[in-house]
Structures are given as C-alpha cells and as structure tokens.
Amino acid sequence: MKTGKIPQQVVVLSLIAVAVLAGFFGMRALFVPESFGKYGHYRADAVDVIRKLPIQYAGAKACADCHDDVAATKSQGFHRGVSCEVCHGAAAAHIDDPGTIKPTAPRQRDLCPLCHNYSPSRPTGFPQILTAQHNPGKPCMSCHKPHDPVPPNTPKECSACHRGIWSQKLVSPHASLECATCHQVPKEHSVNPRGFTVGKPKGNQSCEKCHSNESPPASTIPQVASEHTGRYLCWDCHYPHLPEGKQ
Amino acid sequence: METGALEPFTGYIYPNEYFLQWELLIVLYPYITGLVAGAFILASLERVFKVKALWPVYRLALLSALAFMIVAPLPLLAHLGHPERSLEMFLTPHTTSAMAMFGFVYAWYLVVVLLLEVWFDYRREIVIWSRESKAPWKYLYKLMTLGATDISEAAVRFDDKAGRLITIIGIPSAFLLHGYVGFIFGSVKANPWWSSVLMPVVFLFSAIVSGMAIVMLIYMVTSWIRWKPIDMTCLNKLGEFLLYALIVDFSLELLDFIHRLYESEESIHILSQLITDRLFLSLIILQLLMGAIVPMVGLVAARFGRLPDEMRRMIYFLVGILIQIGIFSMRWNVVVGGQMFSKSLRGLTVYKVHLFGLEGLFFTMGLLLLPVAILYVLLKLLPPWVDGDQDGALASQPH
Amino acid sequence: MSLDRENGGCPGTAAVAAESGCAGANTTEMDRRQFFDTCQKALPVGMVLLAAGTPIGSLASADTGAPEGAVPEPKRASYAMAIDVEKCIGCGRCAAACKTENKVPDSPHYVRTWVERYVMTNDGETRVDSPNAGIDGFPDQPEADILKTFFAPKLCNQCANPPCVQVCPVGATFQTRDGVVLVDDDYCVGCRYCIQACPYGARYLHPEKLVADKCTFCYHRITQGLLPACVEVCPTEARVFGDLNSRSSPIQRVLRFNPIMSLKAELNTRPKVFYANADQEIR
C-alpha cells in the first residue's frame, strides 16, 4: 500500500460511499414527517389525528341536559350508576341530530338478562333471576320500571340476590335451614340492601345450637364437644353453606 | 411440517391470539439469513484462518452467501402489512427496537461485507473480462469494475489485503447478522418460549451448521452437473468443520432445554404440552433426531470411518439434506412454536399452512428457489471454479 | 405480585413523581430506574452509530415529558384505570361499547377489551373462557364443583414501560406525554413485532387497515373530558378511570382502599391498569 498515492479502488468506493450517505440524509430530510420527533420518537401529528376521532357515546351528562326528568328519577333508584347508553346504545349521533336519529329503547327480554340472568360468577348480592323460569315470555318492563327498577314485590327468597350461596346450600346437609337460622336479617334489607346489611353470626354459639354434644341429641347431626373448636371459629374450618359430609 | 393440525385448539387463548402473526415467511427469513451467515463464515475459514483445504469452495461459499442475502429481505417485505412504508425503518429507526436495526445490519452486511468482498476478490478478473468479452457482457463487466480498472501488481496486492481486511470485519458482522436475528426472538420477554439469552448463540451456531451444509450440497451438486471430480480433501475438511459446528449447536440447544426444564418456571407446563402435543414431529423427530443426531453419526462415520469415497459422498449428501430439514424445522419450531401457546399460559392454538397467498406454501417455495436462480446467474457471471475449467462460465469468456 | 401502595399512586417517571411530590417515592430507587432506562435507550444507539454513522442527536428519542420552552405548561395528566374484580358482573357491555366506539372489527378474534370468566374447581383446576369477548354472555357451567368463580375484564395495560413501544421499529406506536400508548395508523408498517411483544394479548392486526390496533383508553374521549366508553357503560363501576396526577381523581380512592395487583408484574411493564381485589389466577 506504500504506493504514495491513494489506490484507485479506494477513491471509487469513497465516492460511492459519499453518494450513498448523501442519498440517505437527503431521503431523511425529504421523507421524514415534519412533526416527527417533536415530543418523542413518533409523529406528533398522530396524537391530534387520534384525538379528533368522532365519539359514539355521548356520556350520561349529555343525556341529562335534555332528559332531566328521567335523570332525576334514575338518580334515586338502583340504576343510578347505570349510564343511559348501557341500555339505549351509543347516542352521540342523537345529540347531534335529536329530531331524526333516535336511540334504541329495548322493550323485550333480551337486554336485561345480560346483567340479571343468574350466573354463579357474579358477585353475591347482585339481583339475578333464572330468566327461563322468571315470568317466561313477559317483557321485563311490564313489571319493572327500568329507570327506577323496584321489584313489584319485595323478594321473599334470599336466593333472588344470593343464588350462588343458595344453590350450594341446596345440595348441602344444611339444605333445610333458613338463612335466618344463622344470619340476622334486618327487615329493611330486602328493600334497601346496602343501607341495612345482614349480620353474620358473632361466635360459635349459633353452630353449637345444633352441633354441641350438650344440644338435644339427633342421630343425623354430627355433634362435637366444646373443646373441639379450640380457639377457632367453626367456619374457619367448615364452610357453613357447604359443610363436608354428604355433598 | 404441519404438526398437530388435526387437533382442535385446547384450553384458553386470548381472543386476539386466534390468528398467528408470524407465519411461514418469517420461518423462512431466519433460515435464509442463517445460510448467509454460515456460508460466509465458511468462506472466512479459508481466507482468514488459512484452511487451505477449503480453497475449492471459498468463492462458491461467497457467491452462495450473496445469492441468499439478496433474497433474505424479501420474505420480510412480503409479510409487512404496508410494504410501501418499509423505508421508514431506515428513515426513522427506533433506537430501542431490535428490528429497526435490521435495515442497518442488512445494509452493512450486504454492501460493506459481501459485495465489497466479492468485488475485491474478483476485481482483477472483472477488469480482464471487461476487456476481452463480447459486446453485451463487456459493458456489464465494465459497470462492475466501478471504474477502478487498475490491475497493476500493486493494485492487485491491495485488492488482496482489502479482501482479507473485509473478511476479518465480516466475521463479527456475520455473527452480528445472525446473532441479531436470534436477539429479535430472544429479547421478547412476553414470550417464554423465545425469551432466552442463549437464543442468539443458538441461532448463530445453527446458522453456521446450515450454511456449511448448504455450501457442501451446492459444491457437490455443481460438481456433478459440471462432470467434475469432487475434491475429497475439501469435502472431508468441510464435513469435519460441519461436525464440530453441529456438536456445539446441539449442545447449546440441549443446554437451553435442560436449563428450562431445571428452572421449571411458570410456563413449563404449557411449554411441555407444546412440545408433546404440537411440536413432537417438528422438534423431537425432525429437528433433534433427523436434523442433529443422525447427521452427527453420519459425519463421524464418513470422516473417521474407513469408507470408500463413493460412500462418503453419499453420506455427506444425505447429511447435508437432513441438516437443511433439521435447521428449517428449528426455525419453524421457534417462530411458529412460539405462537402456538397462549400468553395466558392456559392453552394451545393450531397453525395450518395455507397453500396460496403471500404467506402460503407456494410463495415460500418460490422464495426458496429464487436464491438458486440468483446463484446460477452469479456462477455464470463470476465463475468461481478452481479446477481450471470454465465450461460453466459464459461462452464468451476467454479465460 | 401486589403493587406497593405509594408506588401504585404514582407509577409515572421520576420527573412526574418529583413534580407531584408524591409521598413515599423513593428517590434513590427512581434514580436507579431512570439510569437503567437511559442505558436501555443508549445501547442500541451505539449499534446504529456503528452501522450507519447517524448522528445521535437526530435519532435518540427525547420523550421526557418535560415542558419545552419558557411558558410552563399545565401539569400533564397520567391516565390510569382501576378494575375492581369483585364488582364485575360479566355483562360484557364494556367490550360491546368498545367495539361501537372504536369501530373495532365485528369478529370475536379482534378485540380491544374483553371479559374473561374464571372458574376454579374444588380439585384445583382453573378454567377460563371468554366467548366473543363476553359480549353475548357466558354459557352455563356445572355448579357443583365450583370453589370460586369471578369475571375479569382485560384491556391494554397502558404500561408505563411498554414493551410494544420498545420494539416498534419505526416509532409508529408510542407513549403520549400523558402516558397513553397509541398507534399511528398512517405510519405503522404492519410488522406485528409489537403484537408479539405484548404480554397481555391486547394487540391485533387490523384486518382492513393492516396496521396494529389496540385500546387507546378512548384517547379521543378522555382528552375532552369524557370517560372511556367501557367505563361510561360499566353498570357497576367495576371500571374506574382517572388521572394519577390528580389527588381528587376517583382512581385514587380505589388504589387507597383496596389490595391492588397488576398483571404479570414480574415483567416490569409497570401497567397503569390496576386490578383491585383480584385473584392471582388472573393472568
């Protein structure tokens, strides 16, 4: 390489390299969007594009602007947390053009069961029905006002809201026991469930009524000495709604 | 290739996992880049490490690497949702993205390493051909000289030195090229089948194995087509290196497997199901048994056993084909296998190869045949034969 | 698994934590985290330099979220969602509303949010399903052997440390300065690396646009003061949306009073979707 001058190959390749690099930076100057990199490694304009997408759901506040009467009724009832568009569907178009575009108003039995059909996976206390057995064929609205859904008759059975527990109890040795045998249920609970909550048994006494060996003997009920529990509560080990034994 | 396709998908998969995102084309991509890296490393064995026995396949390996390299980005491009935007990877590469580096690693490797190496290696001949060939070819060779027509002794000596320097740069580059492909998968922490520090290393060694095997196959096939004797010293040496690479590759894969099994993380249950229910054929049978263990036995027998040359050639040929199947299966098991289980770790899905369309079998086969066509052109244009015979070269060439 | 309460209150960047003066933010820990973040960004920059000789200044991302210029901008929001698993009734209205609001393809295999049902049986098995994202309800399960069962809504976790953004090769998916991860439909090349990198299965390739698509927290709604569609229609307030940088945001109460976990916390994605009262089987 000690030729004194730069080899021809190097000259040629250097020229090509410079051309390629110039092309690369030229392309960058030409094709990279203007707003790219303003806030970070992205096109800042994309944020505005996404921000300007049309909305479909107007929001309950917008509904209340015109339908203040319904909003007032609803705000006092069990459905106060349920946004209008849950049942009536997306209504932004209706707000833009209230005259011609009307939101849907479900009147059959198809919508309500989505929330109120019984499923053991739903949290206990949530009002649920067995849709197939609950006044079959009748639209829900014929008995329940959707904006203030008070049941026409206060439910007598605890299973109306606690079916999961109830159905477990049904197959347990405790099947014949009323809920109130162990729980103290305030009268108002069935009307105002969250205002008047159900008490749980305070201690082992409620179990000992039947299961203590000092209780009246009954051949089918297992009975234990009071020392059996030690420092534990009975339900620390035995699930009262489905105690072991026969299942 | 298709495993477990008859079974329905089991357990729970996230709704968005119903369709696989990376299909046959992405299986093809690491397979082809692997061939490039492996073929180049084979070439560098002769050039840098002076393994003179490999001289007959040096140029052939270089040209094969180039042919595969030209095809390598095509499956990637074809699988993009918006191929027309692919330039963005060069214009605004995201510095935290392994994939964004692809453009640069590829450009570096193709232009700076492969093309330059071939150019320096052939420049003297190109200049001669540009003077002595007939009309159309003359101009093509003229263009290929890039204007550097000095073939004085000093200039040729410079070519040789530059070529060696590029090969030396090329070895880490080849490691980078394929190690990086492994990193694309190995760095995905969301996917326990991929996420492994060993992934780039396993990819690298499997690349070396597949590249050496393909050059061995190409050498044997081209010799047969040209009715030329195969240099058995070269072939034996090739087989020897192939055996070493295969042993390292197999050990690494085994290490990865044992490590996973021993650490036995949360994902182990679904991954064992994946292997037994979905990948048994492609992983256990094709990749490990047919693609690694049988070739190892074959190579040991051919290299160290007292066998007639005819038998050896037969073994090398079969081993070469088995290794290609095995390495392709390995890419399949990584790419497709990594998407056949749910990231909820609760279920397995299925993948059925389509026949038509961009992700289909026929298109993939086309892409696999394309390098062969390119190689044919390259061999005609830049004859690499060292046996003094140029009958495969252009008729117009004097030489 | 469960997130430290203080951190849960301010999981943003170090800059955000300092700004809001969030109590209990361990400065050393934050600095260390920031240091690693910086290293993470610097490493591949070196690779680019090596490969292309591109100047650092023009390529290195500088998304610090710090206000630029002399005029101080109002404090930026840090949007987040909390999901109270104990309140979810599995009605699937969220998933349905999301499809309407965001014009998500009408197919069970493309969803931005979905509801999973978990059923744990007495023999220790966990069954999960989400037929059509939970939009049409769930088929009955045999009740006899259920130990416990619940619903869990899923969506993009809007990670503070999003793996999808990290892997996007072109900067088509990104984190806005208020912490929401979005996709630029006009820039995405459709390589699907982000879909692979998402641990939560929250992304899909839009079958018509052929770009990656995902939950935006309804960015077009929240930036004009509306709630995300799924939160708007949730009848039991199982989904709560808010601003982590605002002390009076409803999300603060959920974070304060409930045991909180985030999904796949071991991956250090630092989700901004928090799960309250959630079972570890949710993943």
Jot down its keywords.
heterotrimer, A: 247 residues, mainly alpha, 10 helices, elongated, B: 399 residues, 13 helices, 2 strands, disordered C terminus
Question: What does this entry look like structurally?
Answer:
The complex is a heterotrimer of chains A (247), B (399) and C (283). Chain A has ten helices and no strands. Chain A is an all-alpha fold and 247 residues long. The longest helix of chain A has 24 residues, at 8-31. The radius of gyration of chain A is 35 Å and the shape is elongated. Chain A starts with 7 loop residues before the first helix and ends in a 10-residue tail after the last helix. In chain A, 18% of the residues are buried. Chain B has a two-stranded antiparallel sheet. The longest helix of chain B has 34 residues, at 153-186. Chain C is 28% helix and 18% strand. Mean pLDDT of chain C is 82; it is low at 1-30 and 45-68. By secondary structure, chain C is α+β, with helices and mostly antiparallel strands. Chains in contact: A-B, A-C, B-C. Chain A binds chain B through residues 1, 3, 7-9, 11-13, 16, 20, 24, 27-28, 31-32, 36-37, 41, and chain B through 87, 90-92, 94-95, 111, 116, 120, 123, 146-150, 154-155, 158-159, 161-162.
Give the SSE map.
The complex is a heterotrimer of chains A (247), B (399) and C (283).
Chain A: H1 8-31, H2 44-51, H3 60-66, H4 68-76, H5 84-88, H6 92-96, H7 113-116, H8 159-170, H9 205-211, H10 234-237
Helix pairs in contact in A: 3-4
Chain B: E1 10-11, H1 24-47, H2 55-71, H3 73-79, H4 88-91, H5 101-132, H6 135-144, H7 153-186, H8 198-225, H9 232-263, H10 268-278, H11 280-304, H12 309-335, E2 347-348, H13 361-381
Antiparallel strand pairs in B: 1-2
Helix pairs in contact in B: 1-2, 1-3, 1-7, 1-8, 1-12, 1-13, 2-5, 2-8, 2-13, 5-6, 5-7, 7-8, 8-9, 8-12, 9-11, 10-11, 11-12
Chain C: H1 5-9, H2 14-20, H3 27-52, H4 56-59, E1 79-84, H5 93-102, E2 113-121, E3 126-129, E4 146-155, H6 163-167, E5 173-175, E6 181-183, H7 193-197, E7 204-205, E8 212-213, H8 219-222, H9 229-233, E9 239-243, H10 250-257, E10 260-261, E11 273-276
Parallel strand pairs in C: 1-11
Antiparallel strand pairs in C: 1-9, 2-3, 2-4, 5-6, 7-8, 10-11
